[in-house]
Design brief:
Oligomer: single chain
Bound molecules: zinc ion
Distance between the termini: 43 Å
Helix content: 40-55%
Number of domains: 2
């Protein structure tokens, strides 16, 4: 993290000096669309540093609102999260966001931000426009039209976060600072400090990951987000497919993270989206986060599952995100096994369309079969943090079998074996029909 933060700091220090030295020009002279503006973006061969550069907005039709058909930039606001799954807010409310207040000067037809918040909003608009255009090619036409039907996403830059769990204000540790707020079709890009950390609003890998959650919600769940009702716990316990179960299952939200990582790779070529999303002040946590690159293979199912007896057995990866990483790594490994290069954007898009097509029928195929009855805690809508060797394998198996059934045969056999290798007993043998050639 350190080199990136230094590069950012020096780039910004230089730019702020430039901005204060430049003469003040009226704001009314910007012509467009397209609009030319200064944004923060990843640079360098590895893409691990951020610098200011000139960008262009082609789809924005109202520059003062930074509004385009696909997105709308908003400022601040308060997000009250009532149920959080990592960086997905399943229920809660997002209020008090406002139209952006932009401060910039126009120099030679280019909008140059005069303060940090304007720079972030310019950068967010630029990155959303770029990522949304790339995303289009990585989706099936049906998934794309579902996304289009849902309309413009709200991108809220710098929201205030508040958690309220079961109606009580709670001091909950937020361990990510970019969010997809499913009920409102909104994204939050929080900013802890202007200079300490790579800016999320400028990070296409983070934005593509967050949009990946929107893809999962449309392609897997048909755009529907059900709510688990704790008052129905007694009935829920008797129904394998009770309303809201899918939203509560640790496995499904873990696989959702994996799909989001895949989408981030497919659209940007980046292999470590989570590194930028996680709040990484704790050196121990950083260590875990650093081991999440999609081309690594440093943990398997047996390293992430904790038996009751040895609760601290293995710290290589913790919780549902690791299930997602196993899934995303299996997809990337299959992609490479088929002879595709990591930096081949067209090949990534082609493979991604197969992934999204498989995901589109997965829930319906899962529902053709029974799931084991839910545990009482799940029926009461209580979230579990740790992966369970008892409860999770049948759900992983049901998902993966249904997903593989929707994958072209040649891909399915390769992918099945990659999944088998990483998920081990987490992908039980009775669900591995597609592994046979
Ligand atoms: Zn996520």
């Amino acid at each position: 993290m350190a080199p990136r933060a230094w590069a950012l700091t020096s780039a910004l220090a230089g730019s702020l000096a430039l901005l204060s030295a430049s003469g003040c020009v009226s704001q009314g002279e910007l012509l467009g669309p397209p609009y030319e503006l200064v944004v923060l973006d990843r640079v360098g061969a590895s893409g691990d540093e951020f610098e200011l550069r000139r960008g262009r907005l082609s789809t924005v039709d109202d520059f003062d609102q930074l509004a385009a058909p696909g997105f709308r930039i908003r400022q601040a606001g308060v997000l009250t999260a009532e149920e959080l799954h990592g960086d997905m807010v399943v229920s809660g409310s997002f209020e008090g966001d406002t139209a952006p207040t932009l401060r910039y000067v126009v120099e030679n037809g280019v909008a140059v931000p005069r303060d940090y918040s304007t720079l972030l909003m310019f950068s967010a608009a630029y990155q959303f426009e770029t990522v949304l255009a790339g995303l289009r090619a990585a989706l099936t036409p049906s998934a794309q039209s579902l996304m289009d039907e849902r309309g413009a996403v709200d991108v809220i830059v710098g929201p205030v976060m508040r958690a309220r769990i079961k109606g009580v204000e709670a001091s909950v540790r937020m361990d990510t600072n970019a969010f997809f707020f499913a009920p409102g079709w909104q994204f939050g890009l929080a900013q802890s400090s202007s200079l300490e950390k790579a800016p999320l609003a400028a990070d296409s890998r983070v934005i593509a990951h967050e949009l990946g959650h929107a893809v999962f919600q449309t392609a897997f769940a048909g755009g529907v987000s059900e709510t688990c009702d704790a008052e129905q716990a007694a009935q829920n316990e008797q129904q394998p497919w009770f309303e809201g179960r899918i939203e509560e299952e640790l496995v499904i939200s873990g696989l959702n993270e994996g799909l989001a990582d895949w989408i981030s790779f497919a659209v940007t070529g980046g292999l470590d989206p989570i590194t930028s999303i996680a709040v990484g002040q704790d050196p121990d946590l950083d260590q875990n986060v650093a081991e999440r690159a999609l081309t690594d293979d440093n943990f398997r199912w047996s390293n992430i599952v904790k038996e009751a007896a040895d609760a601290s057995a293995d710290e290589r990866c913790d919780g549902k995100y690791c299930i997602g990483t196993l899934f995303a790594r299996s997809l990337v490994a299959t992609y490479r096994e088929q002879g595709n290069e990591l930096d081949d954007a067209e090949a990534r898009e082609r493979f991604s369309r197969e992934v999204v097509a498989a995901l589109e029928g997965t829930l319906a195929r899962m529902k053709e079969r029974e799931l084991p009855l839910p545990r009482p805690e799940l029926a009461r809508c209580e979230l579990r943090d740790e992966v369970s060797s008892e409860q999770d394998p049948p759900v992983i198996g049901a998902f993966l079998r249904a997903f593989l059934e929707g994958t072209p045969d040649d891909t399915a056999a390769l992918l099945c074996r990659q999944l088998e290798e990483r998920f081990e007993e987490g992908f039980p043998a009775e669900f591995r029909e597609e592994c046979e050639p």
